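Bumping with the actual sequence this time:
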Amino acid sequence: MNHNDDLYYLQLIQRLNAQFVASRAKDRSHESVVHLLTTFNSSIKDTNHQFDFVFENQRGMKLLGIPLYSKKSLLPIIDPSTYQSLTGKKLHVPFDDLINYPLPDFGWQWSWDTWYVLMYDDVDDQGWVYSSLLFNAHVSDGKWKGKYYFGNFVRRRIWVRMRQSMPEEEAGEVVEPKTSTLILG
């Protein structure tokens, strides 16, 4: 990675952050954030850089203030998979661990060594948003809130990681992934 790459990453993040700030005045809903991320990724699809945004889903509840949520509590027919794309597509992640999330092909490498939890307006201190019984917005109230309320049995958060295309002679190089937190806005 060179100095020009660092400047480009910074410009992309500043551009995304500016869109977050502008959208906050209009709509702070979880759905508008998902739309903004999808639109942003589409706007940079012809560049050598791309962000991967992944939902992590869990089901559970709080008991005496202690969160008891797990990916193992997801209901197979009703709920989405543990990980899914912003469009709702099920993601097949080996060993059901985001660290194993694959690149699209050997022509890409991770620009960031870690996955980051996307921290935006209405999320709790770990990036989670909560909703009622079901993930399906057509059946549940469809309102995701960053604060837990009694009756919120599902939660999700968004992970983000940047990748870049690489020269063909470097294809196949392996980098160990990590996870962390990214705060925007």
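The tokens above came from a reply further down the thread. Residues 3-24 form the longest helix (22 residues).
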